[in-house]
Design brief:
The protein is of the alpha+beta class and about 190 residues long. Helices cover about 25% and strands about 30% of the residues. It contains 5 helices and 9 strands. The chain has helices at about 5-15, 20-30, 35-40, 50-55, 60-65; strands at about 85, 90-95, 105-115, 130-135, 140-145, 145-150, 155-160, 165-170, 175-180. Strand 1 and strand 2 (about 90-95) form a beta hairpin. The longest helix is centred in the N-terminal third of the chain and has 14 residues, at about 5-15.
């Protein structure tokens, strides 16, 4: 049987891979950030209802968090299994293209940005590296105070500890990009 500590570790790992705060998950799951933190730290076990709501907020099957068997080192995500969820920092949606694997350090997302010419780029910073490939439209990135305007086919890579963010640079068309995020290994 899987321990409450392992369930908590898995929830925290997925949440951090998606760059979500406890408050982000609270808003999506309707469970207090304090309670989610207690679950992540293994201080309490989630009820089945809480686990289902947290899993839905993270775009995962609840079984992922309680499966006793070792998690696979290979993960495939079918088109039908991708579920769009709203972005926190700008108008649009994201779909997870990868699922967690035990030794995994990277995740990929398909980001669709709604038209929002003149929208503010909301900045944030965290550990890790990030990269993006613009598939459609135009996206304005801000990294460490520098603007970078990218169009279809352009890409960007940067250390995520710098203030960064992005917004659709078009007022009339959606923009799409593949977003990659990885954890930075300690030296």
């Amino acid at each position: 049987m899987i321990s409450k500590e392992e369930i908590g570790k898995r929830i925290k790992k997925v949440r951090e891979e998606q760059h979500l705060t406890l408050k982000n998950v609270e808003a999506k799951a309707g469970i207090s950030a304090t309670h989610i933190s207690e679950i992540e730290r293994g201080k309490t076990s989630p009820t089945i209802g809480a686990l289902i709501r947290i899993a839905e907020a993270l775009g995962r099957d609840p079984a992922y968090f309680i499966e006793d068997a070792e998690l696979d080192d290979v993960s495939c995500v079918s088109f039908e299994d991708r579920k769009p969820c709203a972005l926190e920092r700008c108008p649009g949606a994201r779909e997870m293209l990868t699922k967690s694997i035990p030794s995994g350090k990277i995740n990929a997302q398909l980001i669709t940005l709604a038209p929002s010419k003149g929208a503010d780029v909301r900045l944030h910073a965290h550990e890790g590296d990030e990269a993006a490939l613009v598939l459609q439209g135009a996206v304005r990135f801000s990294v460490d105070g520098e603007p970078h305007d990218l169009v279809e086919g352009d890409s960007i890579y940067f250390v995520a500890s710098q203030d960064h963010g992005y917004a659709n640079a078009s007022g009339t068309e959606h923009a799409k990009m593949i977003w990659f995020a990885s954890e930075r290994k300690a030296d």
